[in-house]
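Weekly structure sync, notes
Attendees: PL (lead), two postdocs, one rotation student
Agenda item 3: pending single-chain targets
PL asked that the sequence for the first pending target be pasted directly into the notes so everyone works from the same version. It is reproduced below exactly as submitted, 324 residues in total.
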Amino acid sequence: MNKRFFYWFIISIAVAAQLFAAETVRFQEQTYSGSVTYNEKVQPGDAVFVRLSMKMPGATSDKTSQKPTAVLQLFKGKERAASAQFFFTNPQNCSAETAEMLAGIPLSTWLSDKEVYSLKVIISTGDAQKKEITLPFSIQKKQFVSERIVLDARNTGIRKDVSPERRAQSEKLNKILETVIPQDVYTLKPFTIPVDSKRITSGFGDRRVFEYTDKQTSTTLHYGIDYGVPTGTPVHSCAEGKVVLAENRISTGWSVVVEHLPGLYSLYYHLDSLNVQEGQYVKQGERLGLSGATGLATGPHLHWEVRLNMGAVNPEFFLKEFAF
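Predicted structure, written out during the meeting:
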């Protein structure tokens, strides 16, 4: 996966220029008050997260109907483009009088800065009228790299594999990534890079054209970041969580998937060996395995990917205080 030598320089400039200022909007109702904090300006391929804080004086723990629920909605013009349910950030110690909730929506790499977007938070307390809070929201312009990758016979075979085994592996992974368990809150901290290297050979959102041995081509998107590291490089979990997949797959080789928040997962592909197993809890920085070139790979590297509610999100987005 050869790239222009200044690729990392371009990516660094783009990341440094990205705005991530948190905006806070406060509200007051008759029986409760609170605030919403969110990232108002993002780039295509990022995510929007909203933190909802509420105070409900007089609420009692035995009246479960008074526990608030909330939904986050993304609008493109007047059309609703996506939505997500809020979850409690501390479900084990959730007070009846206070509530801290979080919701996130992945943003497609195809979103245009020329469109008008907005967010809506809809709050329900059970015994009161629903409250709607509309938030200004904008997409910043971003350019993505295009690349052409010539595949050898082995990788051509993997790309064109339509076997029941590969189909079953894809279905298993998709079932995991679409799972949202509100109680699974393992971390709210910024992520860390999973390898001790900043040498990026392919970036998130790259527009890829694969050329097969028969000269046919197919076009796809790169859903993660590739770090060009030698085989045997330690790969660490970017954040605390639970290992929900650890196996050898046809397309991605030895692979690990870690759950961090409801609907939020990190993925690690093309490993040479694994140090964890499914069901294991891992700390941030704990070794998951060693990098390699298994599966569809043109050389040794780590493919690091992050999925939110099934959607691929730029992993670099989570290196910041995304949960406020």
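Discussion points:
- Confidence is low (pLDDT under 50) at residues 1-18.
- Residues 164-177 form the longest helix (14 residues).
Action: rotation student to compare against the earlier draft before next sync.
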